[in-house]
Amino acid sequence: MKEQEDKGNLKENKPNVNENSKNKQLEQFREDSKDQFMTTDQGVRVNHTADHLKAGPRGPLLMEDFHFREKMTHFDHESIPERVVHARGSGAHGYFQAYDDSLKEFTKAKFLTEPGTRTPVFVRFSTVVGSRGSADTVRDVRGFATKFYTEEGNYDLVGNNMPPFFIQDANKFADLVHAIKPDPDNEMPQASAAHDTFWDFASLMPESMHMIMWVLSDRAIPRSFRMMDGFGVHTFRLINEAGKACFVKFHWRSLLGSHSLVWDEAQKLAGKDADWLRRDLWEAIEMGDYPEFELSVQIVPEEDEFKFDFDLLDATKIIPEELVPLRPVGKMILNRNPDNFFAETEQVAFHPGNLVPGIDVTNDPLLQGRLFSYIDTQLNRFNSANFGEVPINRPITTTHNHQGAGFMRHTINKGKVNYWPNSLGGGCPMMAPGNMGGYIHHMERVEGHKIRGRSESFNDHYSQATLFWNSITEPERKHIVKAAHFELGKVMSKEIRQRMLGHFNKISPELAQRVSEGIGVEIPKNFEPEKSDNNYVADDASKKIKKGKSVKETDFVSMEKHKIETAKSRQIAILLEDGYDYCEVMQVKSALEAAGAHAKIVSKFHGMRKASSGEEIETDKSHITTASIMYDAIYIPEGEEHIKALLKEGDAIHFVNEAFKHCKPIATSGNGIALLQKASVLGIDFADENSQDVLTDSGVVTAGNDADADEFAAAFINAIKKHRHWDREEKMMVPA
């Protein structure tokens, strides 16, 4: 099948001539100081940088010290205002390549329709609420913004790791952010929605209920930026060469699957390694575990705009895949870390209005507001309209216009003409007709009265929240309930908690009852949402949509139902002390690495660990520098003296307890089973220590002394591929 062949070719990860030429254009501003003399910003070589120029060895600084003044002035102005939202981010370079030319039927965007072209990209992942100094693993939406450096100009797909949003109209965005940010009187809490002001806002905003379900789900605490999906959120338009338009939703799907932390892990990682997601992305790329994402689209013909039971322009809604299947169109591979965090990750400036021919916006009222807001916020951050000239933001195409002034102008424009029309400059730069790449906005007929209001078709706030609850598995439901217990448990106002229960009851009486049990208030009777200031107006769209297509369940919202089972890039801790079985360790370690996993040796102290047969292996991490929360699975080899030592180590026992509590795969053999028993791993059937059996129970793999090592390793790898073993949550919990 041609599509499969194209997908396979992308995995070779070899640059082509086209990509190399583009990269040269992007690289022209990079600087490498190796073997170079230090200079000032003016290019003057520096012969001493450790001391001021002074009037005598103990005298005052002389103002003529231009090197000091330049150096200190630059330092004093190194920071730019952080983003109001998405302040904490991590970025990576890579490329996107279309699978085939099948989208030509729908769009003239070349990067989506030319499979031989590799389009350079820069992706920035981020949290939304916290400041630049906040932790990576907080419960939050994650930004997923992609800048495509296409042959026709820059295209920005600025999305999140959740497909709906909190609000329908951008006029409420400032209120949303103010409510979820730290309280204005005491600047607390940081990077958290678990406080009164956010839930007060949400409880008065029924339109937020669908998004609230996603934020309470495991999607809000991803295991890795590499293991989360991305969504364009809004409905956009594709336009083909003939000028015919269709509606489109964009989806990024991680080829490692979408996986999460558990809440206890997320909280502990925030303290033990606040840079957890940032570090994971960086180290994976450095090791060659390049993150891969498949771009898919949902296409809706313009004539089908009103054939659903929701409005396509409502950003709080999704299109269930059962109604409009995903259509894979290409793959993105992130294969290079930034050279300089500030110059690239911090200075990259996205804008959903950065479009290329073949892609256009719709009248989604949230999207329309973003088209203004993103430009405005970049002007605040850079204090100049020339932020597009910063190297990370420059297109790979040449730019020609009359915008030739402003702070920090980089381009030196030649000639005396800086206006249009002109004759002195030969009418240049000229206008480009549509058949020569000129951007043409979709000619949509628009008419109506000036009004502050929304279509009545936006006035359904609960059906898709119910759809989400009905579509997920029981473990996922349990995690939502626990998340609500935490979030609302931090809310001091009983009135706010009760209002939220009223909304949950409209979503699902079962959900409301389960949440009620943990937050100390009863479900209100005859609850009706308080009227907000939304002005919903009956119109033709409302009449057409009311009887549209719908589904009762949609599997794609469930992480568990769409789990990709792989051991690739997983981090495995091997607990070792002196006296372990060297042959078993090496056999299991080799099998793990062959499956694409990474095994790390964890011991009480750094140094060499000696096997019972005399061989030595070097420790990668000590117990004081790491924890089970930093690994996807753990393995304890057999060895009499090694196990005796582990049984005396509280850190090792806690390591096992915690991994078991977090439903991670655990493997051991022979006398290693004694460590599981000492660690109070309960409700699990173990293999007989002296048998040939390999037994797997809820992700715990045990083997007897005489068991086949290959069978044991294969069973462990299969357990790792499942990521978490949620059935273990039903078993007796261990102290951890």
From TrEMBL:
Q: Report keywords, A-Z.
A: Heme, Hydrogen peroxide, Iron, Metal-binding, Oxidoreductase, Peroxidase
User: Which GO terms label this protein's molecular function in UniProt?
Assistant: catalase activity; heme binding; metal ion binding
Coiled-coil zones? none
Q: Where does heme bind?
A: R83, R124, F173, R370, Y374, R381
SUPFAM superfamilies on file: Class I glutamine amidotransferase-like, Heme-dependent catalase-like
Sequence ranges of Basic and acidic residues compositional bias: 1-14, 21-32
Please state every residue range assigned to the domain named Catalase core: 39-428
Gene3D superfamilies xref list = 1.20.1370.20, 3.40.50.880, Catalase core domain
SMART domains on file: Catalase
UniProt superkingdom: Bacteria
Annotated EC: 1.11.1.6
Q: Where is this cross-link: 3'-histidyl-3-tyrosine (His-Tyr)?
A: H351-Y374
What the entry lists under PANTHER family is as follows: CATALASE (PTHR42821), CATALASE-B (PTHR42821:SF1)
Q: Which family does it belong to?
A: Belongs to the catalase family. HPII subfamily.
Functional summary from the UniProt entry: Decomposes hydrogen peroxide into water and oxygen; serves to protect cells from the toxic effects of hydrogen peroxide.
Q: What is this protein called?
A: Catalase
- Report the source organism: Pontibacter akesuensis
Q: Kindly list the organism's lineage.
A: Bacteria, Pseudomonadati, Bacteroidota, Cytophagia, Cytophagales
